[in-house]
Automatic annotation (TrEMBL):
Keywords: Membrane, Transmembrane, Transmembrane helix. This is DUF3040 domain-containing protein. InterPro entries: DUF3040. Residues 112-148 are annotated as: Disordered. The chain crosses the membrane at residues 42-61, 67-88. It comes from the Bacteria. The keyword rRNA processing does not apply. It comes from Nocardioides zeicaulis. Residues 134-148 have a biased composition (Basic and acidic residues).
């Protein structure tokens, strides 16, 4: 069930008050440890990716039999692919791995971090018929209303 704009605004006000009263508790709720874990996984994925590339290059440069060279090359590719997958999956959704759910009902970090407010879906006519500048003006107007 989605929250209305009024409920989201009230929730954000309560969260701001919580941050002012107890910043340490608010940072615990924010999930900074999950962000750190995701960053570490990205770095580890990058290191594994580099090791796979090194293994692949090593297979090409060494003067080995064709079978050993092929096995080493395939192993390097698999290691490289695993590192890339590890890095990309941790980069996409650091909070989703922790099972966090935002106020909008979607996985990710909460509204404390200033998450996006869920907007109602646009109709096909609005999506295709509105020029770029009108959409930008509408976004600007919504931002100003939210800030007041």
């Amino acid at each position: 069930m989605e929250l209305s704009e009024e409920e989201l605004r009230l929730l954000e006000q309560m969260e701001r008050a919580l941050v002012e009263e107890d910043p340490k508790f608010a940072s615990t709720l924010r999930g900074t440890s999950f962000q750190r874990t995701a960053r570490r996984r990205m770095i580890l994925g990058g290191v594994i990716l580099a090791a796979g590339i090194g293994l692949l290059v090593l297979a090409v440069l060494l003067d080995l039999s064709a079978l050993v060279q092929t096995i080493l090359g395939v192993a390097g590719f698999v290691v490289m692919l695993g590192g890339a997958i590890l890095a990309l999956t941790s980069a996409r959704s650091p909070g989703a791995a922790a099972g966090k759910v935002r106020a909008s009902g979607r996985p990710g970090l909460g509204v404390v971090d200033g998450g996006r407010v869920h907007r109602p879906r646009r109709t096909a006519r609005q999506r295709s018929g509105s020029p770029f500048m009108e959409r930008m003006e509408e976004r600007w107007r919504r931002r100003r209303e939210r800030g007041l």
